[in-house]
């Protein structure tokens, strides 16, 4: 915000869509709709600045805020010709609305202005006493819950018991007298709970309601949601105060929610739900399971037609799929909210692609409609279509994908077990926004109640969680912790499978199959490839992985590790022989045995990648991984001594123990790793170089083409190390080529994964054809933490307490480790202009890290094969500017 004092109050007619920072998404879009001439109830907005200033002052309202609210209220009273608390009563909704939409996470109060003094006037004006008393009881419940903190189930219980006594199922079947009785009961409930009367003056209620909405910014569920969605904690919420319109005025009134396209699949079709004679919360809170929108055409034809036209207009105006709330009051349509709809990754891709085809968006705009992180959803396994099993029940397909896990009935348990890495499915009668922490940690969500537009469904889709909602054949007994479907009973811990794409639920774990890249994804990736500057390679160690990576669009291999080529059970004896060899000859003999095995591996990889570059990293072993542990070997020697077994065996065990002791390192991760081992035993890199060259030549011979060979020396700290290793490699390569009478271009570079290497990158560059930043080890060595120890320990606490913004192994530590990369890149290129620079840590597949690598001007990233599509897309977004979109 600029230096001028923030304005706290805005009439709806003053706002527009580009004011969401100050008005919140909801307020800005309401104002925009009003500007477009769409019917929206009149009102005003208390700005986010007022909320932020109140939070900063520890909950104290800034001077003048209440006076401003009253002035705005007076203007609204003048415009509507009604008075808050008067005999021509103005009724208000008081609605939260943040900059980034957080569906259902914060609070809203409806029907404010009804009191003992105004309820009769309202009944008389509407000529509908039932409606007036229905609104009154709703108000008492919402106000008591949201503003005064009365547990909401206390009201629900009274409602349920009244319905039971009257022998009715639906709220709408209660009579005016019943509702009057309920109003009295609700007042009793509040009085009993609070030990005092609720305030009855609507002005006082308004002040407290606004304050409650401010406070709802900081509820635990809102915090959890923000954390999960990377929304800053200091933005605050705006508060929208609007005239009420009533969907509960009888059979020609209704309320509903709709999307301009299907948010699960992206299909261009009508998607929505409505309820006759109801208020908005009834639909989104999943209290009653609503009817599909298409049925509204019969019930309320005029309003329906107008709604469908408005949906088209809004989508065209915002150039994006809209999520819309509406109410019909006695046949007249009102819009109550529009926002860019939350959608699954599959839907995001389809909508983006379709909108380009429809001529609404350019390709570049379309790329910006998809969040790179979200694409992850598409790369998860799905249920095998050929499973042939019969579902135990079916609900609504509220959010697609497969979830296999143990049944749990409580969000806290789901959160705890999910965090511990267990696969659980959260099963609830309905989920409320308070279950958010459990939803995040569960594999999927199954509810007995609620529709496709319920909060549970919206939140699940936004997170890419599979969700089956409204499976009304299931019975949940929370105290016994059982789920019954017909005569089958599932206990907590039994495994079920959800298919969120069909709504089917299976009473067993189903087989999952690897993900497929569909046409939409492929088309959008094609556009991304035109835009991006960074190359994308894959980390792959086998021919199979290399082939997969190529299929997913990798332009080569950025990291081919060779350790596993030594680890395979049939190779380990030869490798031990090599390590334990007393002299060079013995070692050379052992290496001779390993060479053909390595060559075979390289041939498979080079074949899969022919025509593309492959960076092979020479052996980088913590030595101990090849040897038995010190403890095990000592125990073996002891046991053989005690049992007095075969003397030869005991001798061999003792020799090995001696070697293990000699090679034992206190801190192997900082010990004889990387090129340090190769410096001691140059025969090893020489053998590997030979195997690489022979493989490349063999593949060229067989396939007519081979891969571009790049040999990478690991864990270099000193320029002299690289200089020496380069010589070893080049000599071996030259010898091989000479004896084969062939030519082959081989480049030699190094992995930059130590702070020292970054700082002296200019010296190292003298001997390197390329650098590849190993950002995993660079994070360990740069921050001085061991990943295995940190992630299970203090690191999660650091993230939870916001000491650091995120896990630096998942998303690069921009300032620190990113700073080291920057130094390395700049110094390397200063010494050798045009030096090729890549990244081969897991960060190479993380969109936020890719944005940094783009800024630093690196040449390529390399990541695991399955992240290649995400990296391709993220690299394009990095070029276009990866701003998070405010969708409020
Ligand atoms: P949320 O962000 O949880 O969706 P909202 O502020 O949108 O909360 O409001 C909750 C429900 O109340 C919605 O269904 C909305 O349409 C309804 N509602 C809000 N304001 C009004 C109003 N002025 N008249 C009628 N219904 C309203
Ligand atoms: Mg809403
Ligand atoms: Mg390393």
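-> sequence recovered:
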């Amino acid at each position: 915000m600029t230096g001028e004092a923030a304005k706290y109050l805005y009439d709806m007619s003053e706002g527009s869509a580009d004011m969401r920072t100050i008005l919140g998404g909801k307020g800005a879009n309401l104002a925009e709709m009003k500007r477009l001439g769409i019917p929206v109830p009149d009102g005003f907005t208390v700005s986010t600045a007022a909320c932020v200033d109140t939070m900063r002052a520890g909950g104290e309202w800034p001077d003048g805020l209440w006076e401003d609210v009253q002035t705005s209220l007076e203007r609204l009273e003048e415009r509507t010709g009604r008075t808050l608390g008067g005999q021509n009563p103005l009724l208000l909704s008081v609605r939260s609305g943040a900059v980034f939409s957080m569906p259902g996470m914060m609070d809203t109060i409806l029907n404010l202005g009804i009191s003992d003094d105004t309820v009769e006037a309202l009944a008389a004006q509407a000529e509908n006493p039932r409606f007036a008393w229905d609104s009154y009881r709703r108000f008492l419940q919402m106000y008591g819950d949201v503003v005064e903190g009365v547990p909401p189930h206390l009201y629900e219980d009274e409602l349920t018991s009244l319905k039971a006594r009257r022998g009715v199922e639906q709220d709408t079947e209660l009579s005016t007298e019943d509702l009057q009785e309920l109003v009295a009961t609700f007042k009793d409930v509040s009085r009993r709970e609070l030990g005092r009367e609720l305030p009855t003056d609507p002005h006082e209620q308004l002040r407290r309601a606004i304050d409650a909405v401010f406070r709802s910014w900081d509820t635990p569920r809102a915090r959890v949601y923000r954390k999960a969605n990377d929304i800053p904690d200091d933005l605050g919420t705006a508060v929208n105060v609007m005239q009420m319109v009533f969907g509960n005025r009888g059979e020609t009134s209704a309320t509903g929610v709709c999307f301009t396209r299907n948010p699960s699949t992206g299909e261009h079709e009508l998607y929505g739900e409505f309820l006759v004679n109801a208020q908005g919360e009834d639909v989104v809170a999943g209290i009653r399971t609503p009817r599909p929108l298409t049925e509204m055409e019969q019930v309320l034809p005029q309003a329906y037609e107008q709604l469908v036209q408005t949906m088209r207009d809004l989508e065209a105006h915002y150039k994006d799929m809209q999520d819309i709330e509406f109410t019909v009051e006695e046949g007249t349509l009102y819009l109550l909210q529009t926002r860019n709809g939350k959608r699954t990754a599959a839907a995001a891709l389809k909508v983006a692609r379709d909108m380009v085809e429809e001529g609404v968006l350019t390709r570049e705009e379309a790329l910006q409609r998809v969040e790179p992180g979200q694409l992850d959803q598409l790369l998860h396994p799905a249920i095998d279509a050929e499973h042939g099993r019969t579902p135990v029940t079916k609900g609504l397909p509220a959010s697609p994908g497969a979830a296999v896990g143990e049944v749990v009935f409580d969000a806290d348990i789901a959160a705890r077990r999910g965090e511990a890495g267990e696969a659980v499915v959260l099963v609830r009668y309905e989920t409320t926004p308070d279950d958010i922490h459990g939803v995040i940690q569960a594999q999927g969500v199954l509810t007995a109640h609620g529709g496709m537009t319920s909060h549970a469904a919206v939140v699940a889709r936004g997170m890419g969680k599979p969700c089956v909602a409204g499976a009304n054949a299931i019975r949940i007994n929370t105290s016994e912790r059982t789920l019954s479907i017909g005569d089958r009973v599932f206990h907590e811990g039994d495994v079920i499978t959800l298919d969120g794409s069909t709504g089917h639920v299976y009473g067993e774990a189903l087989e999952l199959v690897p993900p497929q890249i569909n046409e939409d994804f492929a088309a959008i990736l094609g556009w991304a490839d035109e835009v991006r500057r960074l190359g994308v390679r894959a980390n792959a160690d086998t021919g199979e992985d290399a082939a997969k990576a190529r299929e997913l669009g990798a332009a080569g291999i950025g990291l081919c590790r060779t350790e596993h080529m030594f680890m395979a059970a049939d190779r380990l004896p030869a490798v031990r022989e090599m390590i334990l060899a007393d002299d060079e000859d013995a070692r050379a003999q052992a290496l001779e045995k390993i060479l053909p095995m390595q060559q075979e591996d390289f041939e498979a990889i080079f074949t899969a990648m022919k025509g593309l570059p492959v960076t092979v990293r020479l052996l980088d072993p913590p030595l101990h991984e090849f040897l038995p542990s010190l403890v095990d070997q000592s125990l073996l020697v002891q046991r053989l001594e005690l049992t007095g077994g075969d003397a030869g065996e005991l001798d061999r065990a003792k020799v090995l123990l001696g070697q293990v002791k000699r090679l034992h390192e206190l801190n192997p991760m900082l010990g004889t790793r990387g090129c340090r081992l190769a410096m001691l035993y140059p025969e090893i890199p020489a053998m590997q170089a030979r195997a690489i060259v022979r493989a490349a030549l063999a593949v060229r011979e067989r396939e007519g083409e081979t891969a571009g060979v790049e040999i990478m020396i690991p864990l270099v700290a000193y320029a002299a190390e690289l200089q020496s290793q380069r010589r070893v490699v080049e000599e071996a390569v030259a010898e091989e080529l000479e004896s084969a009478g062939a030519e082959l271009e081989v480049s030699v570079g190094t992995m930059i994964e130590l702070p020292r290497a970054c700082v002296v990158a200019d010296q190292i560059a003298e001997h390197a054809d390329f650098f590849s930043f190993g950002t995993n080890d660079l994070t360990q060595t740069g921050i001085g933490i061991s990943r295995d120890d940190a992630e299970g320990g203090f690191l999660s606490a650091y993230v939870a307490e916001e000491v650091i913004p995120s896990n630096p192994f998942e998303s690069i530590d921009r300032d620190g480790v990113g700073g080291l990369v920057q130094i390395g890149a700049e110094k390397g290129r200063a010494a050798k202009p045009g030096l090729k620079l890549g990244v081969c840590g897991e960060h190479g597949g993380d969109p936020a890290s890719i944005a940094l690598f783009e800024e630093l001007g690196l040449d390529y990233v390399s990541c695991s094969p399955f992240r290649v599509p995400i990296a391709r897309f993220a690299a394009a977004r990095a070029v276009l500017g990866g701003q998070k979109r405010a969708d409020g």
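The chain has a mean pLDDT of 92.
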